[in-house]
């Protein structure tokens, strides 16, 4: 009986540890403790911009192309090619841009944090920070979260633009069964500014979860290089699950009750 | 949580009533500094035997416990002047705890003898116990590390030396007992107080623990930039001086992965010294170094100590390093002190374990187990 309970008990304990860690990092950011190390936060923001922007935009651009192509072929098959913009508006903004953003954040930024902080842990760098009288959790984790919050909304909105542009290219320029004006008429009809806000919120919740999970697994890594590898894999699994969970809940909360579709009056 | 988050604070009400703990650090420093305590008569001789403990006051071990034959008894009350004199001359508060008869064999060589050093202790371990799972590392450690000297904690591998360092700086907390730094109880400090206290320390980790994302100059400048308001010119002056001291004046722009093991250690040393700490801890500075570089590093430690003073604590199991550098030695085995005291006295100790370990002989109490 005890053996059977051991696994769920471990999971519960890990979840509790993770929750405590997240609460501590969030407190450091909201409580402005992190601003003691604002320079480090700016450095992390710079690293995020330089190392992750292009790869996220690139992925979202490809997803935008895919969305446009899918929408154009489907609408042609039902005899309404002019309505291809609906797909671009909904598929891009509400679902695939957040998911693409979340996937690349998890793969690039989340695992990067685990590897970086994990190797700092096993080479005593975090202990060195602590014995210098520096709160390592604030310095390493809260600064990364603040940097993500400073940079990612803009990066995300630009990614949405990249997705829209790719869909436009696929539907209007490549397949070409609808004019530019016709595409945009439907495209803008099926979205409004609150949709963009909700989409940004979805993406930022994903980003926050990914940064916190990455920091947690990296900061608490142990067991040498193998331990860091294991922590990286675990963080990726949890992040992918969280990305889908947040995506699903976001859609339900923001568009479940009112899809805001101008259909049937 | 092994890494300093989720710290436990369960010792606030459990502090052992130490004999000298009511004496604050400055008081003790003043007393120790004002007059050197007279040598304990027959100190070594008196202490010979399984639980001899010459030259220091006995810390009460708790209600109901019977004093051992070596501990002060009612007879002492008959000689208040002698007791008072002893109290005055005492500079450390630690003592070896009582041992049960069943432990006789295991602690056969642990006399716990602490030879007087003439100066107050900067760091004190009081009956510290620490376990990791079933693995009991520290098992009632009582140790004092004197102010102003280079102390070495020597002992076989896996005996808890590095764990000691982590207790000193509050990276680990004792399961039982207390660790005092300049009279302050480390496990009972609030987070902010702990971070403040840590500024007294410089620590050289085994591999230097340099930040991989910064070059050597920035690594050494890091504590100054974080903790002081010095201008970049002042920072540069201090950093360059420290780098010159450790022979890395021309390597400031190198990244840690471009340095050899010895250079990384020296760079770590420069970083540890940059805030002029009162206490510098070295975790096996000789590990992975060839004998010549080990000797050079030891010389460097001595030179810097002569220049800056303070309490230097070196963890090692290299006897040659101990002979070169140590002014005070504590021999640790099975999580307790076997003997401690001035280096020259320890090297002439009659204790078979200490003699075997400090001469590196194969035969003696210490085997492969």
Question: Topology of this structure?
Answer:
The complex is a heterodimer of chains A (265) and B (369).
Chain A: H1 2-30, H2 38-77, H3 84-122, H4 125-131, H5 136-175, H6 180-189, H7 193-219, H8 224-256
Helix pairs in contact in A: 1-5, 2-3, 2-5, 3-5, 3-6, 3-7, 3-8, 5-7, 7-8
Chain B: H1 25-34, H2 43-47, H3 74-77, H4 80-89, E1 113-114, E2 121-132, E3 135-146, E4 150-154, H5 161-168, E5 176-181, E6 184-185, H6 191-198, E7 201-204, H7 216-227, H8 232-245, H9 261-273, E8 279-283, H10 291-308, E9 311-316, H11 319-325, E10 328-333, E11 336-342, H12 343-347, H13 352-359
Parallel strand pairs in B: 1-11, 4-9, 4-10, 7-8, 8-9
Antiparallel strand pairs in B: 2-3, 2-5, 5-6, 10-11
Helix pairs in contact in B: 7-8, 7-9, 8-9, 10-11
Q: Would you give an account of this structure?
A:
- The complex is a heterodimer of chains A (265) and B (369).
- Chain A has one domain.
- Chain A is elongated and about 65 Å long.
- Chain A has helices at 2-30, 38-77, 84-122, 125-131, 136-175, 180-189, 193-219, 224-256.
- Chain A has 265 residues and is mostly helical.
- In chain A, 85% of the residues lie in helices and 0% in strands.
- With 369 residues, chain B is of the alpha/beta class.
- Chain B has a domain at 110-359: P-loop containing nucleotide triphosphate hydrolases (Rossmann fold), CATH 3.40.50.
- Helix content of chain B is 33%, strand content 18%.
- Chain B has a seven-stranded mixed β-sheet, sandwiched between helices. A four-stranded antiparallel β-sheet of chain B has the order 3-2-5-6, with helices on one face.
- In chain B, helix 7 crosses helix 8, helix 8 (232-245) crosses helix 9 (261-273) and helix 10 packs parallel to helix 11 (319-325).
- At the A-B interface, helix 1, helix 3 and helix 4 of A face helix 6 and helix 7 of B.
């Amino acid at each position: 009986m005890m053996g059977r309970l051991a696994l769920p008990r471990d999971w519960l304990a890990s979840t509790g540890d993770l929750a405590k860690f997240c609460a501590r990092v969030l407190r450091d950011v909201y409580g402005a403790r992190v601003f003691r190390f604002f320079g480090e936060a700016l450095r992390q923001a710079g690293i995020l911009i330089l190392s992750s922007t292009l790869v996220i935009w690139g992925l979202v651009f490809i997803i935008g192309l895919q969305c446009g192509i899918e929408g154009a072929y489907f609408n042609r098959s039902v005899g309404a090619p002019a309505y291809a913009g609906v797909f671009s508006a909904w598929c891009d903004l509400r679902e695939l841009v957040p998911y693409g953003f979340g996937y690349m954040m998890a793969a690039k930024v989340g695992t990067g944090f685990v590897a970086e902080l994990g190797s700092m842990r096993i080479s005593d760098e975090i202990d060195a920070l602590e014995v210098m009288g520096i709160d390592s959790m604030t310095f390493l984790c809260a600064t990364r979260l603040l940097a993500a919050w400073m940079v990612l909304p803009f990066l995300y909105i630009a990614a949405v633009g990249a997705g829209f542009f790719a869909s436009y290219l696929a539907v209007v320029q490549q397949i070409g069964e609808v004019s530019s004006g016709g595409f945009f008429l439907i495209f803008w009809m099926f979205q409004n500014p609150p949709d963009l806000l909700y989409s940004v919120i979805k993406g930022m919740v994903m980003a926050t979860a990914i940064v916190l999970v990455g920091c947690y697994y990296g900061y608490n890594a142990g067991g040498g290089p193998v331990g860091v590898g294991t922590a990286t894999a675990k963080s990726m699994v949890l992040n992918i699950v969280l990305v889908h969970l947040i995506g699903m809940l976001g859609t339900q909360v923001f568009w479940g009750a009112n899809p805001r579709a101008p259909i049937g009056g | 949580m092994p890494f300093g988050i989720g710290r436990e604070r369960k010792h606030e009400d459990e502090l052992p009533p130490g004999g000298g703990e009511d004496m604050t650090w400055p008081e003790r420093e003043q007393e120790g500094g004002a007059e050197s305590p007279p040598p304990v008569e027959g100190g070594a001789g008196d202490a010979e035997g399984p639980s001899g403990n010459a030259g220091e006051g006995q810390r009460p071990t708790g209600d109901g416990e019977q004093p051992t034959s070596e501990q002060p008894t009612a007879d002492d009350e008959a000689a208040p002047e002698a007791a008072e004199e002893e109290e005055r001359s005492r500079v450390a508060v630690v003592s070896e705890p009582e041992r049960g008869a069943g432990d006789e064999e295991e602690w056969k060589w642990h006399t716990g003898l602490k030879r007087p050093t003439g100066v107050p202790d900067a760091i004190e371990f009081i009956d510290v116990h620490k376990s990791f799972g079933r693995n009991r590392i520290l098992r009632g450690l009582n140790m004092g590390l004197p102010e102003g000297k280079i102390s070495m904690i020597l002992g076989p591998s896996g005996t808890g030396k590095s764990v000691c360092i982590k207790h000193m700086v509050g990276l680990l907390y004792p399961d039982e007992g207390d660790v005092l730094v300049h009279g302050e109880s480390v496990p009972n400090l609030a987070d902010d107080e702990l971070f403040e206290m840590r500024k007294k320390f410089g620590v050289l980790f085994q591999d230097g623990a340099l930040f991989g994302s910064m070059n050597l100059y920035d690594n050494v400048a890091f504590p100054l930039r974080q903790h002081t308001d010095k201008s970049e010119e002042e920072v540069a002056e201090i950093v360059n001086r420290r780098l010159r001291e450790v022979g890395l004046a021309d390597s400031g722009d190198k990244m840690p992965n471009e340095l050899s093991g010895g250079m990384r250690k020296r760079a770590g040393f420069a970083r540890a010294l940059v805030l002029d700490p009162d206490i510098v801890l070295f975790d096996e500075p000789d590990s992975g170094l060839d004998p010549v570089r080990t000797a050079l590093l030891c010389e460097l430690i001595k030179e810097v100590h002569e220049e800056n003073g303070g309490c230097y604590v070196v963890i090692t199991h290299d006897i040659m390093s101990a002979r070169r550098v140590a002014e005070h030695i504590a021999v640790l085995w099975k999580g307790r002190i076997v003997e401690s005291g001035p280096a020259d006295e320890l090297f002439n100790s009659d204790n078979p374990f200490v003699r075997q370990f400090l001469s590196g002989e194969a035969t003696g109490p210490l085997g492969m187990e």
